């Protein structure tokens, strides 16, 4: 029994050190592959991606992501408490209906890089842990860069660069503000929405995102992050 207990403790220690080293390494290198990307290959959708650096990403795409997904990204610690409270209240009142989420960009990156898509309390617990770790180790710039590199932007397509090439036949650095907004609007359900030509929903939502971008671009914390 003692030997078994020692083996279990050693295994957990190795796993803990291993994942910690991986988190630190990803501050500078890009993930070789993610669970979602593996699933895309298994399902026969292929894997189209092209990681680009922070400096290669257009400011419009960074601002569009914040405007659409997480307007408090530059100031929170990885979790938006107000949105979590609103989501819990909504879900309590609407039991049995589609649940409302409250994931920040940091939480989405934690899920997309380290975990899987299917919801469960176990996954949410791990997601919270990895969110805390990447906020601590990576910082906001790297988290947003990773978000725009690994997020699924279409069937078998991942990241802003691959999306730009797929939908507009040009590098992400050449995207207009509206094009960047349309790609980001597609993120919640990239298998359903149409970017180019845009569906009615994407067109309307992209217009809203552009208005939010204009409102947010003078925010001191966001301005500091993006510049």
Quickly describe the structure.
The chain has helices spanning 2-25, 35-42, 59-69, 81-93, 105-114, 121-137, 140-150, 160-168, 177-185, 200-216, 220-226; strands spanning 48-49, 152-154, 157-158.
Overview of the molecule:
There is one protein chain. This protein is mainly α. The chain has helices spanning 2-25, 35-42, 59-69, 81-93, 105-114, 121-137, 140-150, 160-168, 177-185, 200-216, 220-226, and strands at 48-49, 152-154, 157-158. A three-stranded mixed sheet has the order 1-3-2, covered by helices on one side. The longest helix has 24 residues, at 2-25. The model has no long low-confidence stretch (mean pLDDT 89).
What is the residue-averaged pLDDT? 89
Distance between the termini: 58 Å
Biggest β-sheet strands, sense, barrel? 3 strands, mixed
Low-confidence stretches: none
In helices, the fraction of residues equals 55-70%
String of helices and strands: HHEHHHHHEEHHHH
Shape annotation:
globular
Q: How many runs of DSSP E, i.e. beta strands?
A: 3
- Report the structural category: mainly alpha
Strand content: under 5%
What's the number of helices?
11
Describe this protein with a few key phrases:
mainly alpha, 227 residues, 3% strand, 3 strands, single chain, 3-stranded mixed sheet
List the helices and strands and how they pair.
Blueprint: H1 2-25, H2 35-42, E1 48-49, H3 59-69, H4 81-93, H5 105-114, H6 121-137, H7 140-150, E2 152-154, E3 157-158, H8 160-168, H9 177-185, H10 200-216, H11 220-226
Parallel strand pairs: 1-3
Antiparallel strand pairs: 2-3
Helix pairs in contact: 3-9, 3-10, 5-6, 5-7, 8-9, 9-10
